[in-house]
Known about the structure:
- The chain is mainly beta.
- It has one helix and 14 strands; from the N terminus they run βββββαβββββββββ.
- The chain has one helix at residues 87-94; strands at residues 22-25, 31-35, 45-47, 58-63, 68-76, 105-112, 125-133, 136-139, 147-150, 155-159, 164-167, 174-182, 187-188, 191-192.
- The strands form four sheets. Strands 4-5-6-12-7-10 form a six-stranded antiparallel sheet.
- A hairpin with a 7-residue loop joins strand 8 and strand 9 (147-150).
- The protein is globular, with a radius of gyration of 18 Å.
- The relative contact order is 0.18.
- The model is unreliable at 39-52 and 210-217 (pLDDT under 50).
Amino acid sequence: xxxxxxxxxxxxxxxxxxxxxxxxxxxxxxxxxxxxxxxxxxxxxxxxxxxxxxxxxxxxxxxxxxxxxxxxxxxxxxxxxxxxxxxxxxxxxxxxxxxxxxxxxxxxxxxxxxxxxxxxxxxxxxxxxxxxxxxxxxxxxxxxxxxxxxxxxxxxxxxxxxxxxxxxxxxxxxxxxxxxxxxxxxxxxxxxxxxxxxxxxxxxxxxxxxxxxxxxx
Length: 217
């Protein structure tokens, strides 16, 4: 990939800065939109429906030396999620999540630079991805022979399979929205699947996977 095509920030050049809309309830118990950007005080600020205000998500970062960039749209550390008193929003604002959160969830938007790709990797999580912009290839084998091409609106349900992402265009960026959910230890034919992030591990240096046979640091 050309140096000029690499991501230097989120959003990737050529893609719009996505808005995030979060709902809640005002002092009267009526539904309203909240502004919960990480640049604001910890306690979310509430606004009436008019004038309209929003934010763009939290905890942005460039990935794999510019192959892509990410923005965290939401995260929680419990399931069921604790919404009372905006406990979930305060957690999400303060904590930049790792790849996944034990017993929680992460909503992560990833922009791929033109021609950008990841290494082969496996997270011990349930990954639900929806293509928003562009066209991406998902390969399940190192030689790329086991693959699918995903286009806007297509959805992948990744159940702990080793995989690699690649933006098929060398001219335009691509965007995928991921929801990462924690899972119980996974066994295939009696053997535990192993956590393996490869080069992506440097993006999540604090990540510890599971317990027992699935524990990786």
